[in-house]
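Look over both lines:
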Amino acid sequence: MKQFFEYISQFGKLNQQQIDFISKKAKELNLPKDEHFWQAKKIPQYVGFLLQGIIRVCIYNNNGEENTRYFISEDHLILGWENFNADIPALQAITDCNLIVFSKEDWKEISTIIVDWENIIRKATAKYLQEKLAKRSQLISQDATTRYIEFLKQFPTIVNRVPLAYIASYLGITQPTLSRVRKKISH
């Protein structure tokens, strides 16, 4: 829980009574590799904070093909079911993951009891969305080599922990193209 509260403290202050209340609502979850934290198109039941591991966010097109949209690594909140319409993404563990989770009901109760909680979470969400947008927007107009080089800069701690197929999907290129790019820049 310490890791979670250190993260939260960047966005607002909590007193010990509030910390104790939140701690009682939290549960630890070990999510094995390849398991889903959220299923595509199903309303999520939990809010989470990723302590360890990598989760990928993916959507499915009309042909059922998956498209990796983003990677979530350690020290990030995973929330936002109220922001989704019918296109709820799947969140799949790429590695074994450890999370702190809260049920939707407990999360709402925390928001009701702790006056500044919504503001703290809004600040955390804004920071996450700003980071995500900055990372994604740079990739749109770049060639495959530049996209991969930028990916290495943006996600240095996960590049060797994520299957190449997911990286290629995230970059919007094929896996053979990614292999050629990797070979080219390693020389």
Q: What stands out?
A: The longest helix spans residues 117-139. The two ends are 44 Å apart (CA to CA). The chain has a mean pLDDT of 88. The beta strands are 27-31, 36-38, 46-52, 55-60, 66-72, 76-78, 90-93, 97-103.
